[in-house]
Write a structure and sequence with these properties.
Elements lengths: L22 H16 L3 H12 L5 E6 L4 E5 L1 H7 L6 E2 H8 L1 E2 L12 H6 L4 E8 L19 E9 L9 E9 L6 H15 L3 E6 L8 E4 L1 H7 L20 H12 L4 E8 L5 E12 L5 E10 L1 H12 L4 H46 L5 H12 L6 E7 L5 E8 L4 H11 L8 H8 L3 E3 L6 H4 L3 H10 L3 E9 L2 E10 L8 H38 L9 E8 L10 E7 L5 E8 L4 H19 L6 H15 L5 E9 L8 E8 L5 E3 L5 E3 L19 E5 L3 E6 L11 H13 L7 H8 L10 E8 L1
Antiparallel strand pairs: 1-2, 1-7, 2-3, 4-5, 5-6, 6-7, 8-9, 8-12, 10-11, 11-12, 13-14, 13-17, 15-16, 16-17, 18-27, 19-20, 20-21, 21-22, 22-25, 23-24, 23-26, 26-27
Length: 766
């Protein structure tokens, strides 16, 4: 196993210490373990299974839990089912074999052992019957009528790692031999005894390639049985021996290890605290594909009670009554153990359901920053999973209810509306909602029907509540950052299951998460208000200039605040010309917005008092100032200067320069659109010493200049030319004679992906 020697070994065993494993099954676990040890991926593990499990004397299935189907059956399993083509649905396979429960009912149900294994749950040993009649692939055996039904013992457990690409489970069928006249009872008793014996099975792995064959992995049951934890790894397991350990048993184990063969024995070992226990130990060698010995896998069980029982029964052969009482005691112990296991499983299922609800609540509530949507999501989480109906109240800083949300499993919207309009504004001090808000603690009313007159302030609200059903009420406060933001009122309409302390704990946890999400919405809205104020102060109000019409549009990509580095400006310069600016500072946050404010001020100053008004000269001066003053890292800009007509009928004269910015567009009054891409230049902040050039054109009457930032034309998977072409198409499709505002609306009508800021300005020259 050259490539696998350095891989962590703690994943090569099925960690199910409570699985029922006999001698044949222990060998099977070892074989399956070897497959996983030899495979570098889950896919190769599933391919290696047939070679390892084919000749195992017990029937073995491999189940793909994702597909719910049998994907592999060894020779013994094929003999049970006949010629059934794989893969096949798990229940179809059971029907082909003729499997039933002990009462004769088919196993094709979610409570059957095969279905449980297909769901990823362990089956720690369950008895089933196999009918001796005809099979799915042909007539019955010649002696089918004379042969009684067979009794099988089923064990199943997950085989693959939970985080792997495959989700496999292993199922073992072990036939129980028939007895005498009381065979059925004897078989069931044998199964119960096997279940008791196998309740604490430990797994260990040693590495014979290392000096002294040390332990390299032990499972939690080993630590629980022996008292040795991680300190056992790296040592030879002889530390379990003691003064009364049988030397002959030790010699037999050593001989088997030297000969690289399997061995099973029972010997006296000692725990870490010095107490002795009888240990039934089965050791099997594991070989890689080249036949090299890579591991020994040990399966050991604390059989102290069994050994002690055997000795006691040997001493009590003469006392039949005492033996019978011993058997009754063992049966009662098994039944209590089964009851305890069922209660533990129920508790685990409830805890798993609670964790799933909390995980869903967290992901659901943080997925929105809209308060109304958040309240609606919260009500859906509560009904019907926690209650028959829910009523949520939010309060302001003065304790007055400012918003509500409600839901009933059967609708009843009119009754909920009565509570929202007539009840919440006059909450009695005795109402659970008011008490919960006032004390910031949960309030539980298990028999609310006896207090109905004290809970509502009017007859209409009382009748509405009675129609909704309110046998049991639970109010929990929504507290976040030491402030009570409201309360959740949960109601159950029937007394079969009133609220208990577990429900209170669950509702409190949900309310805390909801309150924190609501407080985050409140903080976001406050930040949004601040950002909106800042943005309005940075972006100008377009001035009214004779002879031109203008409009602008801005959308920020920032998720923290609606500000960014894109900007636009419209200037009425002292010489009567018109300046149009569009720019984009690198970044999408408040820092970019601050840099944008500085850059916009520099452009205004340079354009306002420029000795040479040429846009190329103005941008060159801005570049030098940006680098000299450290105003911004880099930015793209288009600056256009439009000179009014020199006389009646003369056109406007437009001169523009670009600093690495997308080209502006010119739309004529007739709807034709031209891309003004004749001039380009380096970004601001790259090289301020290089001169910049500009270009000039005459503007047709009522032509509109449109300048924009790259957020309007960028799309994932497409280049800028495609985005510009789409923008041109949208503008061409706009009706002739459309003004600047209509053109801006048409330009942003495409699907903006929100990854970049979008700024746009449109100026029509009349």
């Amino acid at each position: 196993m050259p490539a696998e020697r350095d891989r962590p070994r703690d994943s090569i065993l099925v960690q199910r210490p409570d699985a029922v494993v006999g001698r044949e099954e222990a060998g099977l676990v070892t074989a399956a373990t070897a497959v996983v040890e030899q495979a570098s991926t889950p896919a190769s593990a599933s391919k290696a299974l047939p070679g390892v499990l084919a000749d195992v004397p017990v029937a073995v299935l491999v189940i793909d839990r994702g597909a719910g189907a049998v994907t592999y059956a060894n020779t013994a399993a094929v003999e049970l089912a006949g010629n059934v083509r794989l893969p096949v649905d798990i229940d179809t396979w059971g029907a082909s074999v003729g499997l039933t429960d002990l009462g004769g009912q088919p196993l094709a149900s979610t409570s059957g052992p095969l279905s449980l294994v297909a769901q990823g749950l362990p089956v720690t040993g369950e008895a089933v019957r196999m009918a001796s009649g005809p099979r799915a692939d042909g007539p019955p055996a010649p002696d089918a009528d004379a042969r009684p039904d067979r009794l099988l013992w089923v064990t199943g457990f997950p085989l693959s790692r939970p985080d792997g690409d495959e989700h496999l489970s292993l199922v073992v069928f072990l036939e129980v031999e028939a007895g005498g006249a009381d065979a059925a009872e004897d078989q069931l008793q044998a199964l119960r005894e096997r279940a008791v014996v196998a309740t604490d099975i430990a797994f260990i792995i040693t590495d014979p390639r290392q000096p002294d064959n040390p332990l390299i992995w032990v499972n939690p049951s080993f630590s629980r049985i022996t008292g040795y934890g991680d300190e056992a790894v790296g040592r030879n397991c002889r530390f379990l021996q003691g003064p009364a350990t049988d030397p002959a048993a030790i010699a037999g184990i050593r001989a088997a290890l030297d000969e690289r063969r399997a061995v099973t024995t029972t010997l006296l070992n000692y725990r870490k605290d010095g107490t002795a226990f009888w240990n039934q130990l089965s050791i099997s060698p594991v070989f890689d594909g080249a036949g090299e010995l890579v591991s020994f896998v040990g399966v050991q069980t604390d059989v102290t009670e069994r050994v002690r029982g055997e000795r006691e029964r040997e001493a009590a052969f003469a006392a039949e009554q005492a033996a019978r009482r011993e058997a009754e005691l063992a049966r009662a112990t098994a039944e209590r153990a089964q009851a305890d296991a069922e209660r533990a499983r129920a508790d685990a299922e409830r805890m798993q359901g609670r964790l799933a609800l909390m995980a869903e609540a967290t992901s659901t509530l943080i997925a929105t920053l809209d308060l109304t949507d958040l309240l609606d999501r919260l009500s859906r989480l509560c009904v019907p999973l926690l209650a028959d109906w829910v009523f949520i109240c939010l309060v302001d800083d003065d304790g007055a209810v400012r918003e509500t949300a409600s839901r009933h499993r059967d609708g009843l919207e009119e009754e909920l509306r009565v509570l929202a309009t007539q009840h919440v504004g006059h909450l009695p001090e005795s109402s659970p909602t008011r008490r919960s808000i006032a004390t910031s603690r949960p309030v539980l009313v298990q028999q609310a029907g006896t207090h109905v007159d004290d809970l509502f302030s009017s007859e209409a609200t009382r009748q509405a509540a009675e129609r909704l059903g309110m046998r049991s009420l639970l109010a929990v406060p929504m507290v976040a950052r030491r402030r009570t933001r409201g309360a959740i009122l949960l109601a159950r309409a029937h007394t079969e299951r009133p609220f208990d302390q577990e429900d209170v704990d669950l509702a409190e946890d949900l309310a805390r998460r909801a309150a924190l999400a609501m407080d985050n919405v409140r903080l976001y809205q406050q930040e949004h208000t601040v950002a909106d104020t800042l943005q309005r102060s940075l972006l100008p109000e377009l001035p009214a200039i004779p002879g031109v019409e203008s409009a602008a549009h801005y959308v920020s990509a920032s998720t923290a605040a609606d500000v960014g580095g894109d900007f636009y400006d419209l200037l009425h310069l002292p010489d009567g010309s018109i300046g149009v600016v569009i720019g984009d500072v690198v970044g999408h946050d408040i820092a970019a917005a601050a840099a944008m404010g500085h850059l916009r001020g520099l452009i205004r100053a340079c354009a306002w008092e420029a000795p040479d008004p040429d846009p190329g000269v103005v941008l060159a001066r801005v570049d030098r100032l940006v680098q000299g003053l450290g105003v911004a890292s880099m930015a793209t800009i288009v600056y256009a200067r439009a000179v009014p007509p020199a006389g009646e009928g003369a056109p406007w004269r437009l001169t523009l320069a670009s600093a690495g910015h997308p080209p502006p567009l010119l739309r004529t009054a007739g709807g034709e659109v031209e891309v003004l891409d004749e001039v380009t230049g380096l970004l601001i902040g790259v090289d301020g010493s290089r001169p910049r050039r500009s270009t000039s054109i005459d503007l047709p009457r009522d032509a509109t200049l449109l300048a924009y930032t790259d957020g309007l034309i960028e799309r994932p998977g497409t280049d800028l030319d495609e985005g510009i072409a789409e923008l041109v198409d949208r503008l061409v499709a706009t009706p002739a004679g459309s003004g600047p505002r209509a053109l801006c609306d048409a330009a942003v009508a495409g699907s903006l992906d929100g990854r970049d800021d979008v700024a746009m300005i449109a100026v029509r020259f009349c």
